[in-house]
Every structure is written in C-alpha cells, then in structure tokens.
Amino acid sequence: MARTSRLRANLVLGASVLALSGCIQTGPLDWDLRRGNGDTSEAARQATAAAPTPDANGIISYPDYQLATARRGESVASMAGRLGMSPDALARANALRPTDPLREGEMLLLPDRVSATPQPAVIGGTALPSGGSVDIRSIATTALDEAGPTPVASSPAASKPIAGQPLTHRVARGETAFIIARTYNVSAKALADWNQLGPDMAVREGQTLIIPIATAAAPDPEPVPTPPGAGSPTPEPPSAKKPLPDEKTEAAATKPKATPVSPDLGAEKSAASATKMTMPVSGKIILGYDPKKNQGINIAAPAGSPVKAADAGTVTVLSADTTGKGIVIIRHAGNLLTVYVGVSDMVVKKGDKVKRGQEIGKVAPGDPAFLHFEVRDTTKKSYDPVDYLQ
Which end of the chain is more exposed for a tag (fewer CB within 10 A), N or C? Predict the structure, then answer.
C-alpha cells in the first residue's frame, strides 16, 4: 500500500513539472505578450514576404532607391568612404552627422546609386531589377525644420507602388516602430526583420524604413451576431393605456433650499496653476507661431542663458539638426511634447526625469541668439506655445 502511494505521488510530481515547463518562455519573443491560442496579433496583420537579402557589399537595390547595411564599427563617414560617396550627402539623407557611429546591420538610404554585385535583392524568390535614380531632394530634410512644418510620415496610399518594390516610410517625430507597423497593417516583427532594427525596436526621426511586402490580406472580421429579439415588434406596456398622474415639478434653474454658497475658484487659483507651462528661457518673442511657416515661437536670449524645462516630464530625444543646433524633446503628461532647438551645453541625457523649471542646457551662440520652442502632442499636431505660457 505504501509503495502504491509513493508511485502515485511521483506521477503527480512529474505531471506538475511538465505543466510548469510548458509555462517557461523558451521560444522567440512573444510580440503581443500572449502565448499559444491567445495570441491574435498576427491574425490581424497581413502576412509578409521574407526579408530582402543584401548583396556581398551589403547593398539592397530597388528600381527607385538603394539601402546599405553597416558593418561592425562603421560610422557614417567610414561607410561613405567604403561606398565611394560624400559623407555629408549620406548623413543628410538619413538625418545624421558624418561622425555618428552606426550599429552593425543598421540600414541607411543612399543618396546616389552605387555599383552593386551581380546578384540583385531577392524578395519571396523573385529577383528585382536595378537601375534608376533617387531624387534626394524629396527625402533629405533636417532633424527639425524651423521655417516649415515638421516632416510627417508618408501615407500608405500616397505613393505609387512599383511591382516588387517596397514602399518607404520616413520616420516622423514621436513615431515608434509599433505605430508605423500598425499604420501599414504589418507586424512589428516583420518591420524589424526587414529593417534590421535593434532589440529595443528603436527608430529615429528622419530614418527611412522599408515596409514589408504583403503576401495576403488580413482576414475579414467575424460578423457580429444579432442580439436575441432584434427585429421583433416591441409590445405595448400596460402603463401606456392609462396616463400617469400629474406631478409637481420645478424649473431646472431653481436652486434647492439650503444650497451652500459656491466658492470662487478663480479667486483662489494659485500662480502655479494659472500657467500650464513656464517660459523655457527669459527673453522676448521675436517670431510668433504660424502653423505653416513656424510651428513654434522664437525667443531671443543672450548666448549662454539657461534653458529650462517648461514642465515636468521625461527627456526622450537629444539630437542636433544639420546646422549643429542642439535639439531636446521632453514628453509630458497628457501626451504633450515640448521641443527646444538651439540648445548647447546640455546637462541632461535621454531618459532623465526633469522637473518644471529645471535647467537642461544653455542657449547656443547665434546672430541673433535665440531658442526655438514648440508644443506638440504625440500625433505630431503643433499648438501655439503662447496658449500654454499664459
């Protein structure tokens, strides 16, 4: 009897171990944070072809453009030297600086066509033709264009597709790989595979991504079942045959008796709550907000003046435009972003939590010296900063 009990206990223990082992994550990353039959993310995305294969020189060629993959330890300048092109042109085409280091496998858009090895890029077993040219003027923009609207993502329906050639997407401010994948109805994993994104799925403003080619349309949604009783006539309730008795009512504007006096909240509002944001720098506004020409305000201030965070938030971007002006972007509560252009001697780093009024850097030298300040939301819509500073 004791032997039978021990055997039964061992069987139960073994079954428990097998059940627990099935819960351990041993496979690839679950992009939808669900396992097994519960993962419905891929069912809602279009199936895509296999990622393109670069040639021996790391070049992926299409009729209208070419991409190059970075080798270990390369910078923008060293890649340009390897491909025989101008470092400045390659940097401008990708919103980078010639001295910026590149991650191994990172893909850059080429401003001019280069000679590729005889093997063309292959997608889904079909070789694509090469040739043509790229109009760099249509894709090269600065990291922040102070004189015009911020570059926005191209719509999937805006481009005229070429058979076998993937669409391209230039990353706009505030976009993530997951947002872009949803925009084109492809999986984030496919977007990462096609563009050799890092483990953190990070993309940068001005980066050009290729959109995976779909091989099948997403399934139609299941029909919504008709609720019971829908379409049947509603029976007349018994109360409808006899009118209800008259009741005494009061006008909606009549205050109930013994209503306490409402406090004057406007008189009690503090100075801190009266202003949504604080001025990022002390100075005079020399150029106002214009949604088409200047999506922010320019504040004149002596070079070296402290630049302060307009409100509490998290530093999400530290960069510079092609003229060398420092850029800081801070994310705040309520899906708001503040953008500071013309910052030098930055004293914060990406990911830092900053307080309202905390110094983030200095006003960069200029003639005249000024700070460009913007207020946006995560959909890239701009607002007049003066409305938030008054």
Answer: N
| pLDDT confidence tier of residue 342, bands split at 50, 70 and 90 | very high
Report how far Cα 102 is from the mean position of its chain's Cα atoms: 20
Which spans in the chain are helix H? 2-21, 76-83, 87-93, 177-183, 188-195, 265-268, 271-274, 385-389
378 closest CA partner among 239, 184, 178, 194:
178
Compute the 3-state secondary structure of the chain and give helix, strand, coil in percent, each to the nearest 5: 20, 20, 60
Distance CA 222, CA 238 (A): 39
* Pair 214, 46: CB distance under 8 Å: yes
Burial class (CB in 10 A: 0-12, 13-18, 19+), 109: buried
In order of 102, 207, 275, the CA distances from 110 in angstroms are 15, 12, 47
Confirm if 70 and 80 have CB atoms less than 8 A apart. Answer: no
Question: What's the whole-number mean pLDDT along residues 76-101?
Answer: 92
Domain coordinates in residue numbering, the chain: 42-217, 276-389
Cα–Cα distance, 67 to 209 (Å, whole number):
10
| 91 vs 206: CA distance, rounded Å | 11
> Can you tell me the distance from the alpha carbon of 306 to that of 57, in angstroms, rounded to the nearest whole number?
47
Sorting pLDDT into bands at 50, 70 and 90, what band is 144?
Answer: very low
- Most distant CA atoms of the chain, gap in Å: 96
User: Tokens 């630049």 map to which residue?
Assistant: 307
pLDDT digits (tens, 9 = 90+) for 8-30: 655 555 545 444 444 444 444 44
Distance in angstroms (rounded) separating the CA atoms of residues 373 and 310: 10
**Is 337:175 a contact under the CB 8 Å cutoff?**
no
Higher pLDDT, 229 or 269: 229
CATH architecture assigned to 276-389: Distorted Sandwich (2.70)
pLDDT digits (tens, 9 = 90+) for 166-199: 899 999 998 999 999 888 888 889 999 999 998 8
DSSP conformation letters of 28-67 = S--TTS--GGG--TGGGS-EEPPPP---TTSEEE-SS-EE
Give CA–CA dist 357/348, Å, rounded: 13
- DSSP per residue over 237-268, as a string? PGGGGSPPPP-----TTPPPTTPPPPP-HHHH
Query: Quick check: 116 and 61 in contact, CB under 8 A?
Result: yes
Bigger pLDDT: 253 vs 211: 211
